[in-house]
Amino acid sequence: MHRYRFLLTRQWVILTLVVIALIPTMIRLGFWQHHRYEERTARNNLVARALRADPVPVERLTSPGRAVTHADKYRTVTATGTFDTAHEEVVRRRTNADDEVGFHVLTPLRLTDGRVLLVNRGWIPANGAQTEFPKVPAPPAGKVTITGRLKADETTEASGIKQIAGLPDRQVMLINSADQAERLGAPVLGGYVEQTAPEPRGDTPEQISSPGSEDAPLNYAYMIQWWLFAAAVPVGWWFLVRRELRDRAAAAEQESAAEAEPAAV
């Protein structure tokens, strides 16, 4: 075993400790990527099922003070009422499909039964000073029936968007039905709807694109990659050990050969 005494040198002890630390770390990273793969796959399946489902009246899936359930997110719903442009607000720092920064237009829809549904009518550019209420294209006047995707109330925890105090008048950071119910003094259905129909015409807000599929297979590939790395690390360590043994053996042979040569006369 004296051949392996070099493993007790400072250099090899550090290298071995690094290898020992890397293996479980890479295995854990592989499991984390597997968890992300399952999460993204479940979300993709949820969105796909919701978008395929037949439209239903929004009142069937939500009511004042009720949170939109995970299973009902992205469901296509319909609602009939009148847009209340006097209490319209815009949601700051939102991007469109081209990653341009602007606003989402949040307009209360007063339903025929007196309750209120929050409708995100779409995106408009942030032209001019953002300290002022932007010019917002008007929605159809009178009673209208809209179709859209049901969404849950936005929170800082879920979105990463922070509430900011002292915003300009009629501007918000998050869409939250409880906050809007307090502001409007009316029963507001939980969550909100991203309008998909009637489709935009003329200078109406730009429609929000459908939720895309997350790249779950990429996480699966990363999972395999991390576990292959975990398997390759000890193999690489053993390769270095074998190379060190060969180098030491070759050096020892050269030293022996030099000692065996007769001194020059």
TrEMBL record:
Secretion signal: which residues?
Answer: none
What is any Pfam family matched here? Answer: SURF1
Q: Does the keyword Membrane apply?
A: yes
Note down the stretches annotated as region Disordered. Answer: 193-213
Q: What is this protein called?
A: SURF1-like protein
List GO terms (cellular component aspect): plasma membrane
Report the InterPro entries cross-referenced here. Surf1/Shy1 (IPR002994), Surf1/Surf4 (IPR045214)
CDD domains membership: SURF1 (cd06662)
Keywords, comma-separated and alphabetical: Cell membrane, Membrane, Transmembrane, Transmembrane helix
UniProt lists the family membership as follows: Belongs to the SURF1 family.
Topology relative to the lipid bilayer, per the entry, is: Multi-pass membrane protein
* Record's keyword annotation contains Membrane: yes
Write out the transmembrane intervals.
12-32, 220-240
Where does this one sit in the cell?
Answer: Cell membrane; Membrane
What is the scientific name of the source organism? Streptomyces griseoluteus
